[in-house]
Specification:
The protein is mostly helical. The protein is 81% helix and 0% strand. The protein has helices at 10-24, 26-55, 65-81, 83-114, 121-139, 143-169.
Length: 172
């Protein structure tokens, strides 16, 4: 324990704190992430507009990037002022992903049973769970994004704990 380099503890401890925040406060983390995405889109749009106007002396007809830059500014402002919209979009993407994955797993389970596999019930069960979670994400707006944040938080906690254990057990 004497030979621990304390600077190596910063990332695992920070990962644990962030993972706990994502698990216990997923709605706040989702709103903050969506707001950050809005700010980044807005910044990219502003930089693109400055580049098109100042450095290329462009108009809408001569610079193809100018309309995209204006669109980036508008979309970025929209997401900054209304991060809940992006949360809903993420939730819908999660819903679609879960439904497609679930249907594919159900089909794989049925095919496995036809082929005589003894573990046919495993993809069937996972498929049914995915479809149920997809329906839940569809009926509860924002639930999909919250579910993803919690899953990311659990994965981050596991990774940070493994890193912390390796730092604490490392011998120079």
């Amino acid at each position: 324990m004497k030979n621990i380099r304390w600077d190596r503890l910063v990332l695992p401890v920070g990962g644990i704190v962030l993972g706990l925040f994502l698990v216990f406060r997923p709605w706040n983390a989702t709103a903050a992430l969506c707001s950050l995405i809005g700010w980044l889109i807005l910044l990219a749009g502003c930089i693109g507009m400055v580049n098109a106007l100042a450095f290329q002396r462009a108009t809408c007809l001569s610079s193809p990037m100018l309309p995209f830059s204006v669109a980036g500014i508008v979309i970025g402002l929209f997401f900054v002022l209304s991060p809940g919209t992006l949360v809903s979009l993420v939730g819908m993407l999660v819903c679609v992903f879960l439904m497609v994955t679930g249907m594919t797993n159900i089909q794989a389970g049925v095919q496995s049973r036809r082929w005589g596999s003894r573990t046919w019930w495993l993809p069937l069960t996972v498929g049914i769970l995915c479809v149920v979670l997809g329906i839940y994400a569809l009926l509860a707006p924002g639930a999909g994004a919250v579910m993803v944040m919690r899953l990311v938080g659990v994965m981050m906690l596991c990774s940070a704990l493994v890193n912390l254990i390796s730092v604490l057990t490392w011998r120079d």
